[in-house]
Design a protein that fits this description.
It contains 4 helices and 10 strands, in the order βαββαβββαβαβββ. The radius of gyration is 16 Å and the shape is globular.
Amino acid sequence: MYRLFAALPVDPEIAPGLVALQKGLTGASWRPERNFHVTLRFFGALNHTQARDLDDLLGEITAPQIEIRLEGVGWFGRREPTAVWARVREDDALRALASQCERAARRMGLPPDRRPFTPHVTLAYLHDATLEDTRAWTEARQSYRSEPFWADSFHLYSSHMGNGPSRYIPEADYVLGG
């Protein structure tokens, strides 16, 4: 079985600005720079045949290159924060690409993703972080802005858990704007 998701890689030139945000929040398990990405759709555990079929469906996607801008930060978990992240500015092309990944999942018979698409780059998963501390951390970093970068491809990643942070391995690449 493979734990798979489709995502846009984050330009390495943007990473230092994200790393600079990763401090000052008790209970944060900061993500390593190599794990920065913008998830388009999490597919979950798939067998080899399903993974191959998914690769074929994602390969049929046509979409333009997308300009990505990170603006501000936020958190998931209303009463009990579970993660903090950098916000990706809303963009019709980005939303359309995520929708095409969702359609590929549905064509495979996967259940719909019940969470609304919220484009972001996860900075940390939280363990026992208080709502007050998380709110203060995000308020202090709302002025964060990255330089724009162009996403010219997206990847199908496998996720491998073990000791320490998960490892994400790009298993397939899909060109945008081709």
